[in-house]
Structure formats: structure tokens, C-alpha cells
Amino acid sequence: MSAALDIASWALLVAGGAFCMIGALGLVRLHSFFPRTHAASVIDSAGAGLLLAGLLLQAGWTLVAFKLVVIGLLIFFASPTATHALANAARERGVSFEAGEGEASSKR
Amino acid sequence: MMFAAAALALLVALGLALARALLGPTVFDRALAANSIGTLAMMMLAVFGFLTGRPEFLDLAILYGLLNLVGTIAVLKFFRYGDLGDPGRPEAKP
Amino acid sequence: MLLAALLFVLFYVFWILMSGFFTPFLLAAGAASSLAVVWFAYRMGVADREGHPVHLIWSALAYWPWLVREILKSALDVSRVILDPRLPASPTLVRFKPRQKTVVGLVTHANSITLTPGTLSVEVGPEQFVVHGLTRASAEAAVDSDMDRRVARFERVR
Fold first, then answer.
1. Position C49 in a domain
2. Residues of B in contact with A16 (CB under 8 A)
3. Which of A49, A70, A88 sits opposite C123 (nearest CB)?
4. Around Cβ C116, how many Cβ atoms within 10 Å?
5. Predicted confidence (pLDDT) per residue in C58-71, tens digit
């Protein structure tokens, strides 16, 4: 039972870490502001969620598990609000929705 | 062992996000990167707590998450209105 | 009054679970803090059905697992775009009218859109949502979506 839990926890932690790295890579690779917000949302929802699930399996039924759930709910409710506020403010300031210069070839 | 792997992945991600915060042409790119760094730091604190067997770090992670949200909104408000005490638009959307 | 009592109990349980200590001083401090927060919530006018939609808890528990699956699916899609050497992003903006009637429903829909990687709610209102998508396909999938219908069903519970 414990071994199965460990394997599941491993898988979740590796997947979460991978999503975090991919999101951060996207943050660097994508060419303009609005595409980058999507990369950041990979970190916020998929990466953080899977990492927390992996830690939750290791915590068992303790207060630690409760705190992990609180962190998860905090990210779940707060991170879309922050991202939406960012996008809305960027739009008011006239940041372009279109791709940056570097991406002209892949767009039609 | 598994926590060390996750911490390593988070460190790489933190480095990449930091690069975007330093490069980012507009202030919004930097704010976005700072927000991501906040989320990653929260995860780092949680994983580090497990890595060293000291779950008190989770309290720090919660606090960091709360500050991260308030900080992002404050920076945005400052760059939108130029004043943190500004009430915003009077005809705010419902 | 019932809501105030419920809020107080909720805050107090939250305090105890977060602290994990049971000394008389900390228990009393928790009770005082919980009372203060309930009072602040009433003064700010956020202690109502909209600020604390407790009646939605069961339908929320039914909605979240679906949302988690949706998040993982679209996270894979976005990862594929990011890892592709050609970087096939086609940023697109769509506008549509959401089906939800209540504020809680609109916020849930907008938050779900933002929470799923690949789509991002830029402007939110009862008449119009402005949604940005990483690719043309992901942006168009947000219009008249399954999520829209599910949230509309979710908010009707009372």
C-alpha cells in the first residue's frame, strides 16, 4: 500500500515539476505578453496543483494535509483573479493582442 | 529523494521565470513573471518543508501566497492609476 | 443570524486547524479573532448569499472534478505548443455572451476560463465576455462551450 502511494506520489511530483518547467520555458520562449499569460497559467493551475497533490499523498491524514489543501484552494481562487487583473490592465494600457515581431512567420 | 527532484525542477523553473522578469519589455511582462515566481516560491517552500521534514514551512507558503496576490494587485493598481489610494473608476462594472 | 453563527463556527474551526495548539490563551484568541472577522464581514457587507454561496457547495463538488480534468487536458495542449520548435501559437480574441444570470455564476465561469491554460478571460460582464486564446482553436472552443452550460446548470441550484 505504502509502495503504491509512493509511486503515485512520485508520478504526481514529476508531472507537476515538468509542468512548472514547461510553463517557465513558455514564459521565456513566447514572443508577446498575452501568449505568456497562458504559459504562466500552466504553472499556476497544472504545475502547482499536481505538486500539491503529490505532497498530499505523502502527508497522510494530518494537519499538514489540511494546510496543503488550504494552499491549493488559495491558488485555485486567487491566481485566476490576479491573471485576469493583469490581462485587463494590459488591455487598458493598449498592449497588443497580436503576436510579436518574431512570430510573423507562423501566423497567417 | 522525490522531493529533491521536485525542488530541482522548481529551481530550474524559477531561474527561467527570473530571466523573463529581467528581460520582459513591458511592465506587465515583469508583473506576470513576478506572479509566477510567487507561485513557484510557494511550491518551493512547501516542497522544502517536506524535504527537510519541517512542515512549519507550509505556514510560510500560505503567507507568501496571500502576499503574492496583494502584491500583484497593488503593483497593477499603481501602474494603472498612479496612486494606491485611488478609488478606481466610478462606473465600475457590476 | 444563522449565517453569522455558521461563519463564526467556520472561522473558528479554520483557526484551530491552522494553529494545532490547544492552550487556553490561543483558543480564546481564536474565538476573539473569529468574532472580529464576522463583525468586519458584516460591516463590509460581504456576509450574504453572494459573498458566501454555501448553498452551492454540493454542485461545486460535482463541478470541480470535471474542471480538474479539463485543466489537465488543456495544460497538455499548451505544453505541446510551447515545446514545439516552430511555436505554433495563433493568439486569438473572441467575444461572446455568457449564459449565467447570477454574479457567482459569472465569476465561476470567468475563473474557470482563466484557470484552464490556453484561455484567459480579459473582460467580464453580464453582457459580454472577452476571451483570449493561445491558439485559434482554443479561443473558439470557449464560445458556447460545455463549460458555459455546466456553470449555468451549477448556479441554478438553490
1. no
2. 6, 9, 43
3. A88
4. 28
5. 888 888 899 999 99
Beta strands in chain C (DSSP E): 92-96, 119-124, 129-133
Q: Please tell me the distance from the alpha carbon of residue B32 to that of residue B25, in angstroms, as a whole number.
A: 12
Vertex A61: Cα angle to A59 and C34 (nearest 5) = 105
Distance from CA of C112 to the nearest CA of B (A): 18
Distance of alpha carbon C5 from alpha carbon A46, whole angstroms: 36
- Secondary structure (DSSP) of A17-67: HHHHHHHHHHHHHSSSHHHHHHHHHIIIIIIHHHHHHHHHHHH-SSHHHHH
Section C152-157 average pLDDT: 78
SS3 state at C129: strand
Domain containing C23: what range? 2-44
Q: Which residues of C touch A38 (CB under 8 A)?
A: 78, 117-120, 134
Write the ipTM.
Answer: 0.83
Domain-by-domain residue ranges, chain B? 10-81
Q: Does residue C32 sit in the same domain as residue C101?
A: no
